[in-house]
Amino acid sequence: MNDSSPGEGHVRVVGTAHVSADSVREVEETVREERPDVVAVELDEGRYRQMKGGTPDDIEARDLLRGNTVFQFIAYWMLSYVQSRMGDKFDVKPGADMLAAVETAEDEGLDVALVDRDIQVTIQRFWRRMGTLEKVRMAGDLLFGVADARGVGAVLGIAVGVFLGPLVGLFGGAVGVTDLLLTRTATAAVLGAASAYLLYTAASFSLDGDDAVLAGLGGGAAIGIVAGFGLGLGTGLVSGILGSLGTAIVGSLVIGVLAGVVVGVTAGAVLNAFGLFVPAEGDADYEEFDMAELTDGDVVSAMMEEFRRFSPGGAEALIDERDAYIAHQLVALRQSGRHVVAIVGAGHREGIENYLAHPETLPPMESLVGVAEKDGFPWGKLLGFGVTAVFIAFFVLLAMAGVGNERLLTIFGAWFLINGVFAAALAKVAGARWTSALVGGLVAWMTSINPLLAPGWFTGYVELRHTPVNVGDIGKLNELLSDEETPIVELVGQMFDVPLFKLIMVVAMTNIGSIIASFLFVTYVIPVIASDLGGVAGVANLMFEGARNSADLIWRSLT
Question: Residue 80 has what pLDDT?
């Protein structure tokens, strides 16, 4: 497209596919033939510097761990990985079109303008514009696009089972879950896990990595089911080690997880049987594309067009806002009298050309930068304040019911201890430093009563003081995820060597530990430490009594 007005320059927009070899040749030929004053490229400063071989920007702790930034970065990683896979499929480095534009312009002695919005701003606004349900639907669509439904069902079943387990411990008696069943199940789990580790260690001397893992898991499961659950071997030893409380916790969690997995796998099998789910088989979908179809848009834009049916707000941040931002830059260059060739993803070309033809329709620049405002009612904040209020009311009502300070301190101490132990322990399992894990454990009691906070943020903040993380880690992770030959155990170990992945796992595991501890506190700990108060039911009755006493006190004060 050529635009020109008296006293102004003109702009030609060239739409490319970021993983297309044909696009690289088109860019080089166009720049050499046009010899414009400026070659404008769809890059920001950080991506340009990285593309030129510079050191990627380190990620500041305060930036990475503020609010939902961890999830935003994961979204960025997800998009980067998909683009990388497309580049591998077509044997072209992602972004090769932009690199060709820059290098050709430099060879010809032409100016280069970076006209795209900072990628971190774009991802932040993309994530912020999406509603909670939209994020869940998007994640589900991505999962069902890359995995068999039965596998996805198993993963989701595990997640559901972790929350179902405490309910089994609390209400299992009503559906026939006896103490003997919990003991046998816990024994099977402990015996099976120990056997699996020993068998894997022995098998690794003679079998390849993945085969050794399968041998360990299969043999451990068989030993646990037959010896531990069926014959009851080792029940006394396991019960003695775990105690009655530990046995109940392990047994009910295992039953909950198994139930969740069975339901998930069954649901996945039904979806497959009725043809309601079509898994992606490797890269078969890409075989159907020719380059003309691929040039329908760059990979990120193509993904977001698919997501637009899920989240108009998210697609607006990733596509429409960037069209306007880039158009602002190009209009300014045109008004300065420059002849410009703009190299952008084909998915942006139409929107940019419309703005160039009608610049009066451009939204204000200030509306395209900075933190995006989240639309709709702030349900997250309401939930956070609600959980905090319930926690405070719990202790206030017990005090109003006449429960002594010593008992209240005991309950609070148990809350503090179980949250701290689980959060710190899982953080350490993920590879956190002792100081980082300790900080996460110390604040877990407080953050677990407010969903707007998370102990993992604090653990991650301390971790980042010692281990720098930068956007270059995404490239390393993409290379590892593309490796189909390395055994899974070794591959996971290599991923933990990448600072970004380790940080994400430390943050996630700290939060998971605190969540599990909160469920365990309600379902297992309170019945034990408040047994003389009537357990959970007795504590609930005391809270009602405290509420009545509080209402009477307020009424007397007013009258």
Answer: 61
CA angle 424, 425, 427 (to 5 degrees): 65
Give 36's contacts (C-beta < 8 A, 6+ positions apart).
Answer: 12, 110, 338, 339, 340, 341
Distance CA 247, CA 253 (A): 10
Let me know if 173 is exposed, middle or buried by CB neighbors in 10 A (0-12, 13-18, 19+). exposed
Say whether 345 sits in a helix, a strand or coil: strand
Measured between alpha carbons, how far is 528 from 522 in angstroms, rounded to an integer? 10
Spatial strand order in the sheet of 111-114? 10-16, 339-345, 38-41, 111-114
Burial state string for 502-527 with b = 16 or more CB within 10 A and e = fewer than 16: bbbbbbbbbbbbbbbbbbbbebbbbb
- Decide the pairing of beta strands 10-16 and 111-114: unpaired
Rounded to whole angstroms, the Cα distance separating 67 from 65 reads 6
Range of 1-15, 465-479, 488-502 with top mean pLDDT:
488-502
Query: What are 507-538's pLDDT values in tens digits?
Result: 888 988 888 888 778 777 777 777 777 766 78
Spatial CB neighbours of 304, under 8 Å, sequence gap ≥ 6: 314, 315, 318, 319
Q: How far apart are CA 130 and CA 119, in angstroms?
A: 17
- Tokens for 465? 């003081």
Give yes or no for a contact between 121 and 44, defined as CB atoms under 8 angstroms apart: no
Can you give the C-alpha Rg of the chain in angstroms? Answer: 29
Q: pTM for this one? A: 0.62
Q: What's the rounded Cα separation, in Å, for the pair 346 and 389?
A: 51
> Residue 521 and residue 487: Cα distance in Å, rounded?
38
CB 164 within 8 A of CB 259: yes
Name the 3-class secondary structure at 340.
Answer: strand
Distance CA 67, CA 63 (A): 9
What is the C-alpha separation between 338 and 37, in angstroms, rounded?
6
Of the candidates 53, 51, 54, which has an alpha carbon nearest to the alpha carbon of residue 100? Answer: 51
Is the separation of the CB atoms in 9 and 337 below 8 Å?
yes
Residue 140: is its pLDDT beyond 60? no
Name the residue with tokens 């099977």.
188
- pLDDT at position 365, please? 92
Cα-flanking dihedrals φ and ψ of residue 341, to 5°? -110, 120
